[in-house]
Amino acid sequence: MSKLFDYVRHPRIEELRASAPVKTSDVRAAHSNNVLTRFNAKVGLKVTLVVGTMWAAYLFTLLALLALPSAIHQGTYYVVVWLSSSFLQLVLLPIIIVGQNIQAATADKRAEDTYRDAEAVLTEAEQIQKHLEAQDQAISDIVSQLEALVRDVKTMRA
């Protein structure tokens, strides 16, 4: 008896095995052919890594606080201007970047977990495929034996 089913692997399976999950740190521009684009991406990433720390937030807080006495001396309007333009902008920028870095790391972890889950599901599916092939073989063997029995019975009757 011929095979009941021919398993054809999906081409994406080999692509999945050949690559790793994409992470935020994998800068798309870094793979560009344009030298300026690669340079800008590297500089932007370095600046983000430096400014996006709590140490930068502490430093910017100290820097902004240096101007506070002058703003207080000049009056309420200047205190509001100092608060909105100096303090909030200087301090919140690195804190927001820190938060975004944490979110990016979380997204990277989630992507990596999803990638590993896909690999696990793929491995399980391959095991199921092997199991089905073994069952197909067993069924084929049983059918062959039944056909032989039917032939033997027919020859005994004849």
Describe the structure.
The chain is mainly alpha-helical. The chain has a domain at 21-129. The protein has four helices and no strands. It has helices at 11-18, 35-51, 54-74, 76-157. Helix 3 (54-74) packs antiparallel against helix 4 (76-157). The protein is rod-shaped. The mean pLDDT is 84.
Q: How helix-rich are the residues, as a percent range?
A: over 70%
Helix/strand structural class: mainly alpha
Name the assembly state.
single chain
Please give the alpha-carbon distance between the first and last residues.
Answer: 25 Å
Round the mean pLDDT to the nearest integer and report it: 84
The proportion of residues in beta strands is under 5%
Overall geometric form: rod-shaped
**What string, H for helix and E for strand, traces the elements in order?**
HHHH
Q: How is the biggest beta sheet arranged?
A: none
Radius of gyration equals 33 Å
Please give a quick description of this structure:
By secondary structure, the chain is mainly α. It has 4 helices and no strands.
